[in-house]
Amino acid sequence: MIQRSQTLYSNSDKRKQRLRPSANWELAMAAAQRLRDGGGRALLYFVLIAAWEAASGQIRYSIPEEMEKGALVGNIVKDLGLDLKGLSDRGIRLVSRGRTPYFALNAENGYLYIAERIDREQICVRVQKCLLNLQIVDGKMKVFAVEVEVTDINDNAPFFQEEQLELKLSEITTAGTGFSLQEARDEDVGVNSLQGYYLSSDKHFSLRVQTGTDGDKYAELVLERALDREEQAVHDLILTATDGGDPVRSGTAHIRVIVLDANDNAPVFSQPAYKVSVLESVPIGTLLLTVNATDLDEGINAEITYSFWKIKEKRSQIFEVDSKSGELSTVGYLDYENTAFYELEVQAKDMGDLFSRAKILVKVIDVNDNVPYIAVSSLLSSVSEDSPPGTVIALLNVHDDDSGENGEVTCSVPANLPFRLQKSLDNYYSLVTERPLDRELVSGYNVTITATDRGNPPLSSSTTVSVQISDRNDNAPIFSQKSYTSYVRENNPRGALVCQVRASDPDWGENARVTYSLLLPLLPGGEGSESPVSSSISIHSESGAVYALRSFDYEQLRELRFQVQAQDGGSPPLSTNVSVTLWILDQNDNSPEILYPASRRDGSTGVELAPRSSEPGYLVTKVVAVDADSGQNAWLSYQLLKATEPGLFRVGLQSGEIRTARSVLDKDALKQSLVVLVKDNGQPPLSASVSVTVVLADSLPQILSELSSLSASAAAAAGGGGGAEPQPGLTLYLGIAVASVSGLFFSFLLGLLALRLRRWRNSPLLESGASGNFSGVPVSQFVGIDGVRAFLHSYSQEASLTAGSRKSQLHFPQPNYSNTLSSQMSSGNNDPFLSAEDIKANDGNRDYVTGPFPITGYCLWLNMIS
């Protein structure tokens, strides 16, 4: 039954108004009426209290205990007159005290439910009115108090704390004597609590019930008639306690009344000594044996109590004898390792102080309850990796407190470790090495030693011994590469890092400290000779970094091979060598060098001849250049920078050949000045230039005549062009120079002619008359420069001189050239040469032809003499 009382006050009109009770209230009143008709005056009392509390400003619900979880208590929102829809917007929550939330509020419908089963006897012990206080808090922080009264139901029956009661009465006890009995207890309250006692029928006893000042009822057993042991030695009575619930619940206690006899016999044990064997692992409370003593007396005179006689305190904490039954049981743990045998003395005593004694012999049987114990007696801190097998590392002592097979212990170590156990004296084991050790593979071991006994089941324990392997210098340094190759550009700064070698040593400490050094090769000169390696590079002894001691020049040194030695710090030290190749990379630091045409000290070059009848593509000459660099830095290209007649000549981009680009015109000047630029392919590119003078003429007199006029014009221009006389000093020096050069030229020419005449003594040298032909002139060739891998082109030109008159004609047939050097010309090839008369005839014009004439392998050089 749920009851609810409610009183709310409206703050709008400051008047107290009684609101309409809910349907639960009406149901509660109807239930109260029914209970009133049926005699439920107590429930009506609670209903009236709820109605009275409605005026106190709080809601109170009344529910019975032991309701199911989820049972409905009441509609809080409706009973408080709150707007459920408005509350859903701002929220409503339940606040309760205590650790256990017995109630739950459904914020959606406003119902209060039971969240946990309520046991009134648990939360309200011996309290007449059990109230649970709750608070309802809405979203506007308004608090409503709610009390829930938990009413009692008759769910507990009266009970006696001791269901077996024993009374010892002498047969001479006076009739009418009362004996107090134990009180029955009932956890319920009110009418559901204890209401009375009843005793089973017996002619010798009756029951007297009294009510105390606190309302509790007490029972006394009253002897109605004198006892007679011979008639009946034991009286069995049943005491019943009842409550006032509906239905009525009750509890009983058995009362055993023993009629005591006069004491004239002492107790006697069934045997003088009791023996028992027990495992040490038996739990506390195990019954070991039962001693038995009898008394010929009857009644109380034959009642015997058992106890130990002069027992030590330690043993009293292990064994206990029941004073009534004589049962010997354990109250503590047995330990075979402490005591294997106990001797106890037990005493049997009756109520007349007559007694007898007997011995109890307890033998404790060992069980495997102790794990083996491993103690490390001595241990080496480290062992060298070169220690031979059988080296003792640790000494172990193994012990098990058990006996027999339970105390027999075997030790073992993992099979994958290079160690084994060797038994010494008694329980001592030695941990020794089984095979060679290698610190580089494993620097240390954690050896787990396991000791196992032979019990059933076996017990084991383990301990770990840390074994450190000390290093020995048994490994040479190892380079990270089998050989090293490094590259450095030429013109590097001094001290530049060119390469770095690295070596590692698997050893430890000083044995693994690696130092680097250069291995200098032995030179043929002996100790006084210095290796180019020592003067070129150095190595850092700690890091292995190789530095340049000087700036390298690719044109002088292209590679440097040496060896580096890595040596550890062991004793004796171990070392390893490695080969290092240092390649010098080229940089574009050399300008092209022009080999042909060669420049004189004054910067002038020879004169190249080209006939005016030349067709386009006629090869005039070739500029030959080399570059001391390599690769693309030595790739040369040729370019015509300047020309007297633009468009008349062109230069091959890769070959350097100067050819006519068109036919020679009459208006083209006799003397053509060309400037050729030779450039390499480096970054940045370097270049060189050369000036080439080309004379356009079909005959030698024409060449000399044109050159004379050009010389005169140049002299006139040098004199100021206004008829000014040349300077005397300059004329003197120029005359001396011309005379010297002319003398040297004629001397060379006479020597050359004499040499040719001697070689050609068997050949016709000159023809009669004014004309003559030279033949058999050997071909000259350009000699390559040492160290330059380039071929020079040789060019062949044929010329002939005819003397039909004072003026000789110089003819230029089609050129014959090739891309390779010619070694020799055949003897049948006649090369015309100028005669001495022609040279003298031109002496007046002071124009001379110098150098090799256009015969195969020679060049024609013309000097202008002013």
From TrEMBL:
Which SMART domains did the record assign? CA
Respond yes or no to whether keyword Phosphoprotein is given for this record.
no
The UniProt entry's GO CC annotations, sorted and at most eight, read: plasma membrane
Q: Where are the transmembrane segments?
A: 732-755
Bilayer topology: Single-pass type I membrane protein
Question: Where found, per UniProt?
Answer: Cell membrane
Q: GO:BP terms for this protein?
A: homophilic cell adhesion via plasma membrane adhesion molecules
As one GO molecular function, the record gives: calcium ion binding
What InterPro entries does this protein map onto?
Answer: Cadherin-like_dom, Cadherin-like_sf, Cadherin_C, Cadherin_CS, Cadherin_N, Protocadherin/Cadherin-CA
Q: Its principal location?
A: membrane
Family matches, as CDD domains? Cadherin_repeat (cd11304)
Matching PANTHER family: CADHERIN-87A, PROTOCADHERIN GAMMA-A3
The name of this protein is: Cadherin domain-containing protein
The organism's taxonomy opens as: Eukaryota, Metazoa, Chordata, Craniata, Vertebrata
